[in-house]
Fold this protein.
Amino acid sequence: METLLTTVIALAPRLVDGAMTTVAITLLTAPFAALFALIAGLARLSHVRTIAVAAVVYVELFRGTSLLVQLFFMFYVLPLIGIELSPWTTGVATLALNFGAYGSEIVRGALLAVPRGQIEAALALHMPPNRVLRRVLLPQALPAMLPPFGNQLIELVKATSLLSLITISDLTFVGNALAQTTGRVTTVYILLLAVYFGIAYTLTLAMRALERRYGVARTMAAAR
Amino acid sequence: MMFQLDYAAELLPILLKASLITIEATLGGMAVALVLGLVLALLRRSRHAVIHTPASALVEFVRSTPLLIQIFFIYYVLPLYGVRIPTLACGIIALGLHYATYTAEVYRAGIEAVPHGQWEAGRALSLPIYRIWRHIILPQALPPVVPALGNYLIAMFKETPLLAVIGVHELLGTALREASQTYRYYEPLTLVGLIFLAFSLVTALVLRRVEVRLAGRS
Amino acid sequence: MPAAPETAHHTPPLNALRLSGIGKSFGGATILSGFSLDVPEGQRLALIGGSGSGKTTVLRLIAGLERPDAGDIELFGRRLPYRRFAGRLIPDDPPEMRELRRPIGMVFQHFNLFLHLTALENVTEAPIHVLGQPPAEARREALALLDSVGLADLADRYPRQLSGGQQQRVAIVRALALRPRVLLFDEVTASLDPEKVAEVLAVMRTLATDERVTMIIVTHEMGFAREVADRVVFMQRGVIVEDAPAIDFFTAPRDPRSRAFLNLAS
Ligand SMILES: Nc1ncnc2c1ncn2[C@@H]1O[C@H](COP(=O)(O)OP(=O)(O)O)[C@@H](O)[C@H]1O
Ligand SMILES: [Mg+2]
């Protein structure tokens, strides 16, 4: 046990570095993913056919192929056709596009779930379409998006581990390196799993707090 | 840099052959996920805390940690304790275990949707608990969740490329091996993407038909 | 906005509404065909008929919530320019359509108050953001209107904290806040508890004394229709069966189907 403890202590600084990177990737990617999700989700409901079709193509392309394949494609192929991006940019962009595609389904579902009568009341009050969207549709749809977006955030934390395969020193990358150099394979991988769990759990708690504040129950002022 | 059609044509048969491994991994993983997920779902419903607590903890833990690390864990750690498993089997176990935590949730939803009266009716007939599950609850709980399970089949299919990291020569692994010999990444990776897209679209269509059939029956 | 020649002042019996040759079907089922109806300004028209006869569809067409397959709708002499709409989330009417339709207000059977806004916010939303009224003024007027229907104290409640009757009174006030010249009521008491019906009818009775507002009232409350309406249009399966002054309709209905309906309703 003595040696296990010293191993853990010896590994800790590098693992903490890796964990910080993983958290940074997650927090950097999430807003972009949410933005892409919102744009694509709205675009799919557009009256302008080309916009709606473009959104469908984007969503199906990223949902229909594998994240790792997308990552390698962006990493290996884009430079060949003259697009030079840093591994970080490549990684964050691919993750954001991928999760944006999945998230757009959440956005679309939530928008379509707003009761028709709410939209009709807004139209009967002669509100312009943009205002209907901003003032009636989104405020009612956003709270419903929070729980599924929370799940997506956990999926995102897990997915960031793939960035270790395009040379980014995230938690997984550091862990693999440590497993090789120290030979303490079991300890390292268990620690790795535990740290990921810790990150995911913390984010789950944060999302729950957010839901309590802005979730369906609160914003709709359910009586009592 | 141009996309070279003759190189792509040369690669296609190799990649299509590799896609058989991808399919094997997917079906194997799904089989594990279907069985293990049901077991986990049933364990979580146990009245005894010594049973449902660890089952729940396992589900939460596996679900919240990356599949990639779980693959590494099974591939690198288990052999240290004398568990020797072929590479592809390692991948199948990892996929199956990971997705069992998702299918367990699906099963749970299906089971909870069966009206309580069905249990009471079973007990009123003094059927043994096993028969209630086997002949009353599960036959009602499972059909409605087939589409949700199908979605995880597609999701798992798209995660099989992760097995390339432990040297399974499925689609991506094979494409990378070819690419490393010719130093051309464009064609292999594009083809892999297209093959995935094709498979996804076809399975989505098939699933939709299954869904319609199931909806028609009930 | 294209300026149309203003001739309204010199042609007294101006129609507030004119529906001509309206056709409407839903997924192959024809609900209205060749439906025509003129409503003079200031009239209180009761539109009655059995369930499924197309009353709601007529109101929704006027309010712009449905698009006619055929025919024209004129509002104060101006034809509404419809555009094919894709049936997505929000219809893509031409922008001038909103301007033209602005005199119309509608009150729904199920109130349709905005659930995430308070009663007051429900009322002030359109005056501020559609009419461009200063917020303070809009709030003052909204509170006065809410007060006139006995709801000033509940202005800060959310819809789910209000009873059905209270919600419907807020919904009426919300429509009034835009100073409509045509008001459409679609069975506004039909989903209320019986004891709440009177409070909503009382509000409408007061409204009906304002001669400048044209009202089309779809209702099953025959007593109320008889009391406030000048004219009754009785529909069956999308067709106008009888169109008569209210007194005549209720005292001596001409069509046997009207008689049967009145017998059932009373
Ligand atoms: N959006 C719709 N889709 C399909 N059918 C509809 C739709 N709206 C109305 N209908 C049909 O049109 C007919 C007339 O409906 P409605 O105008 O609501 O009648 P009323 O208000 O007189 O009860 C009914 O048969 C109804 O089922
Ligand atoms: Mg109706």
